[in-house]
Design a protein that fits this description.
- The complex is a heterotrimer of chains A (359), B (285) and C (293).
- Chain A has one domain.
- Chain A is 69% helix and 5% strand.
- Chain A is built from 13 helices and three strands; from the N terminus they run H-H-H-H-H-E-E-E-H-H-H-H-H-H-H-H.
- In chain A, strands 2-1-3 form a three-stranded antiparallel beta sheet, covered by helices on one side.
- In chain A, helix 3 runs antiparallel to helix 4, helix 3 runs parallel beside helix 5 and helix 7 packs across helix 9.
- Chain A is globular and about 65 Å long.
- Chain B has a six-stranded mixed beta sheet with strand order 6-7-8-3-9-10, sandwiched between helices. Chain B has a four-stranded antiparallel beta sheet with strand order 2-1-4-5, with helices on one face.
- Chain B has eleven helices and ten strands.
- Chain B has 285 residues and is α/β, with parallel strands linked by helices.
- Chain B folds into two domains: 174 residues, P-loop containing nucleotide triphosphate hydrolases (Rossmann fold, 3-Layer(aba) Sandwich), CATH 3.40.50; 82 residues, Rossmann fold (3-Layer(aba) Sandwich), CATH 3.40.50.300.
- Chain C has a two-stranded antiparallel sheet. A two-stranded antiparallel sheet of chain C has the order 2-3.
- Chain C has one domain: Orthogonal Bundle (ABC transporter involved in vitamin B12 uptake, BtuC), CATH 1.10.3470.
- The termini of chain C are far apart.
- In chain C, helix 2 packs across helix 9 and helix 9 packs parallel to helix 11.
- In chain C, a hairpin with a 4-residue loop joins strand 2 and strand 3.
- Helix content of chain C is 72%, strand content 3%.
- Classes of the chains: A mainly alpha (359), B alpha/beta (285), C mainly alpha (293).
- At the A-C interface, helix 5, helix 10 and helix 12 of A face helix 4, helix 9 and helix 11 of C.
Amino acid sequence: MKTKRSKLIYNLVTFGLVIAAFIIMTVMINNKTISRSLKGQLIPICSWIMMAVSLNLVVGISGELSLGHAGFMSIGAFTGIVVSGWLLNGFQMEDPTLRLVLALIAGGVTAGVAGVLIGIPVLRLRGDYLAIVTLAFGEIIKNVMNCIYVSVDGTQLRFGFLNNTIPGTILLNGPNGAKGVKTISTFTAGFILVLITLAVVLNLVNSRAGRAIKATRDNRIAAESMGVPVTRYKMMAFVTAAVIAGMAGVLYGLNMATLVPTKFSFNESINVLVFVVMGGIGNILGSVISATALTILPEKLRFLQNYRMLIYAVVLILVMVLGNNPTLKSWFRSVFGRLFRRGKPEDGPDGEKEVARHE
Amino acid sequence: MSEERKRRSDTRMVPYPSQAIVPERDVGKQPVLETRHLGIEFGGLKAVEDFNMIIGRTEIAGLIGPNGAGKTTVFNLLTKVYEPTTGTVLINGRDTKGLSIVQTAHLGVARTFQNIRLFSQMTVEENVRIGLHNQIRYDMFTGILRLPRYWQQERRQHEETLELLSIFGMQDLADVRAGSLPYGAQRRLEIVRALATNPSLLLLDEPAAGMNPHETEELMENIARIRDQFQIAILLIEHDMSLVMGVCEGICVLNFGRIIAKGTADEIQNNPVVIEAYLGRRKEG
Amino acid sequence: MAFLSNLVNGISLGSIYAMIALGYTMVYGIAKMLNFAHGDVIMVGAYLAFCAAQYWGMPPLVALLIAMVACTVLGMTIEKLAYAPLRQATSLAVLITAIGMSYLLQNTALLIWGANPKVFPDLIGLDSLQLFGGELVIKGATLVTIAANIVIMVVLTLFINRTRMGKAMRCVSEDRGAAELMGINVNRTISATFAIGSCLAAVAGFLLCSSYPMLQPTTGSMPGIKAFTAAVFGGIGSIPGAMIGGILLGVIEILGKAYVSTELGDAIVFAVLIIVLLVRPTGLLGKVQREKV
């Protein structure tokens, strides 16, 4: 049962957790009690939370399996790097905050435009065919990014496609990506972006548009028969997610001194999908928690060396197999049901057959 | 042959469907629905053929026929789930040719489904609110930014929803997940959701299926009440003859995709062709 | 002549894609799941053949047989342990499990064989075919690949259409519930499907590394994704579709790299897939499913 009150509690818990985590981390940074590795991960964690929450909007709320979400992150990241480098080298804009804000806007807009362009063909398809086309677009973006050269010549941006003989200071160097990027992302910026992401997605889900998106997921034909323009709302979810992913990319890209296009491969898209599934389809708070945990955990397990990914793989399989075991499921429900039932809105389709189903 | 004569001889003349009946009170008003020579083929098989029907502004009409007669296909043609192969559908006088399901819904057609199609993961209230989607509106940014208009329109939706749910006394179920409702309640919720779209024509596909006689009796009264309260036309497909004969004014009988009889309840009940379609021909001798 | 040579190479690469795509498409058709670990079975097959030939001194054909048998067992084991318990689960859960399995295979290979690429020996040992007075040279591996693919296509088509198990597979793929009611052992059918798919993957791995002799734990992933694309391209679930899709994809890739741009080869492949799906939303030979309202 999902009442107004439980929805409110859920949102408060989500925001409360994020704010509490931020305060704790800030205190630890000031006390210098934070480990080096964790400190270095704070900004990427914010990016991955944004990625997971935005993908959850597509997979959980809108019910379409997307396997190319890292593509939007890639577009955002490199747009952000180019804009930041352009402002710095072309216009001597030294203020990092202003540069970051402008880069974020540019990255979000570019990724959003890409989202519209990709969404038009993609959302005409259904189920697994839709999934494979998002995969294809993700690979195309990676491939095309490998061929783009950008430099800043005076105040001019110069572009080269498959052509690296462009004058000026190189910002993007084809397959070698970006080097010597001024890292201007801050943890505070990441925190604010996460809050904005959560506010946008949670508010959207509980609004007229969000209900239309969920209705489209639950039953496309019924939604159409009620006069809901299905494709428009699928598009809305897809593009919103693309914009957020683009901004996550900017945050991520401007935190790395070097970044190559192949970083944003199919594997990264899949990783984000793992965050979403592990956190619970349609469960935004779950995405936040699992993105954080699954970014920190592999780093903490670094001492295991080559066994690390092996263990990750085994854990992944075990969680899926045991988590879907009917006996264990009902046992869990009886033991933990009362504890967790309250705050958790059951937004996700429980027969997730519906996520990748042919209609 | 002259060019003009040739053109004239190529024109195929078809009879204009005129044997329509509508309630007397609706005479002189534009009918809610009019179909002319409506038909659809699936791979050469004519599922519905030459389907002509007129429904008056406030008529409760019934569409009956044996299993597989093509009744639901007619609904799918009227709502444009299928594009007709031949013929015309006029909703409030507007031709629906080439319109999508969504556009047809905007013309004022709402329906329920034979195999229930609720938004099962959403609450009862949210389901009705989807029906109100085009009635009480605000844009996406108003929703994300929670502008004053959001709160105002949300409150309107909430009040309207509860009022609609009260038709079937379902206000207390507003926060229940639609998928967990009992069967009968799910059927009633579908009707409420359809009503929320403010239709001029409500199509009910087997509304009494799976209901017990008591519930059916109640439903019958509610259907009549809905018509009186909202002043809309209702077309229903139903196998429960007590419901059809009890509430429908004009009845249309379909068999093998063709209309075999039209008339009032009394006329249909005594029509030998209808009896034969349902029971088969009695052996001679 | 250069065009002809590219075409032949394209058909050869496409034949490999087709063999892998068959595994994807059969598993999809019958178990309704995207088995993302399939690409990594290729890699395992290639490593096993490599070890058998290089370290244990087996003759090439025996090496191939060992790889085939081992992969068949591997495929069936994966299905029993990881996928069978998820029959009733959501398709996303199965997808994530398959991805976990893919990580598992890659990282196990990493532990056993290390990250450094191994150079796959020339096990086919067939001389290049010289045509048109030496103007067109076709490598032995290429010839064997194309020939193997033709044999596989014929045998598989006969198997699907003429045998009891083939008929069972077609039934399960059409309607699992009804097949079960008709007394078909669905679990055994799915198991057999994985066995065939994995066995073909071993052959594909052997042939892939004979043509492109660099072998590392990630060798299988890109051909895996491409073959998956090929399966969708041809209409996922359709066996002839996978064959046609695979070959077309290989040809497009090689010709694209040769005549448009080497760097954009993959982008071209995926762009063609997108265009095909926009024109035919269920692939070249895929069935159009209509939802009953």
